[in-house]
Amino acid sequence: MDRAWRPPRACDNYWEEFKHCVSWSNGFHHYYTYGTVPSCQQWKNDYNDCREWEERRSSEAKEALLKSERDRVAEQGNFTPVWELRKVPPGDWHLPLNQEKPQDS
User: Fold this and answer.
1) What's the rounded Cα separation, in Å, for the pair 45 and 68?
2) CA–CA separation, 29 vs 34, rounded Å?
3) Strand, coil or helix: 61
4) Which residue, 50, 76, 77, 85, shows the most beta carbons closer than 10 Å to its own?
5) Average pLDDT over residues 11-17
6) What is the C-alpha to C-alpha distance for residues 52 and 21, in angstroms, rounded to an integer?
7) What mean pLDDT comes out for the span 22-45?
8) In whole angstroms, how far apart are CA 10 and each of 4, 23, 83, 90?
9) Nearest CA to 22 among 3, 2, 47, 1?
10) What's the rounded Cα separation, in Å, for the pair 66 and 50?
11) H or E, element range at 27
12) Are 3 and 57 in contact (CB under 8 A)?
């Protein structure tokens, strides 16, 4: 059964995420936005676990990858949405938008 299992992402994706995370531009953006330097070690750990799985089919590596992906998905739920999603469109959605007429010179 383990032979049919594949990591949630290709190993190269984990490596690319790690390289992006440690890049100067991402570090600057993260520091500007959150006031901290990003923690990139988990991406590197995930890459190493993925390679371990591909080379040796290690059950520890498989469990570590699954836990990391679950944690990543759960973390996304910690962010509040920027705006509240509507359940139905506004009542006047079909009316033309108010547009200003060009002013005469």
Assistant:
1) 9
2) 8
3) helix
4) 50
5) 97
6) 22
7) 95
8) 15, 21, 33, 43
9) 47
10) 10
11) helix 24-34
12) yes
